[in-house]
Amino acid sequence: MQSTEKTFLSIGVLAFIALALAWTWALVFAPTELHMGEVYRIIYVHVPSAFTAFFSAYVLLLFSIMALKKTNGSAAPLWARSSAEIGLLFTVATLATGSIWGRPTWGVWWVWDARLTTTLILALLFAGYLVLYQSLNPGPQRTKICAVLGILIAADVPIIYTSVYWWRTLHQPPSLMRPGGSTIAPEMVWTLLACLAVTLFVAGWLLTGRTRNLRLLEELEKASYEQAS
């Protein structure tokens, strides 16, 4: 068991080192964008954070469906809760880095833009899921209610992505995944993809570690309850 924990910890250390190296390259050494200048570099944190937040919503969707199919003795609710926590973390990072980019670009920290507003809704939904999970008593009813909410949360992701096409918005359309191919220079694309891959790996490590901690906490609470009885 100790060997497994050390291996898991070592993987996490390597993941964060890789993330630090990717950010250092992106923020210091990557080519400067012609029109936006140095401020564009925030996309190397902003875009991977957004993709990771969206990915977390679909992980939440997956485990919510699994939790509905088997409500007793399944680890799916714990994975779902962890994915909501990771999703909230990266959604907040998306909003924060977007504001940092928006201040010099738009002249304001925040506008009620369609993309920004729907992303804020995603953060509120993740937070609401966690509040609901904590407020309900453990059992099949909590599992089912949270699972239904988890499924609904995932529905906000395609709305966020297509919001720049559905409504008039200050937010620029997608530059990487768009019809006709990317409008970003190849060296910038590779840097962005590297940051995305490392961010997803870190998120996966955090998700796994958090779920393991929740499972251990659940086992300790169960043992404490049985001992008290």
Q: What's the structural blueprint in terms of helices and strands?
A:
Blueprint: H1 2-29, H2 43-69, H3 76-106, H4 114-135, H5 140-154, H6 156-166, H7 186-228
Question: Which features would summarize this protein structure in a list?
Answer:
single chain, mainly alpha, Four Helix Bundle (Hemerythrin (Met), subunit A), 77% helix
Structural account:
The protein is mainly alpha-helical. It has a single domain, classed as Four Helix Bundle (Hemerythrin (Met), subunit A), CATH 1.20.120. It is 77% helix and 0% strand. It is built from 7 helices and no strands. Helix 1 (2-29) packs antiparallel against helix 7 (186-228), helix 2 (43-69) packs antiparallel against helix 3 (76-106) and helix 2 (43-69) packs across helix 7. The longest helix is centred in the last third of the chain and has 43 residues, at 186-228.
Give me the CATH fold name. Answer: Four Helix Bundle (Hemerythrin (Met), subunit A)
Gap from first CA to last CA? 29 Å
- Name of the CATH architecture: Up-down Bundle
The portion of residues assigned to helices is over 70%
Low-pLDDT stretches: none
Average pLDDT reading: 86
What's the helix count? 7
Q: In angstroms, what is the radius of gyration?
A: 20 Å
By CATH reckoning, the class would read Mainly Alpha
Report the sheet-strand fraction: under 5%
The description of the largest β-sheet is: none
Number of strand elements? 0
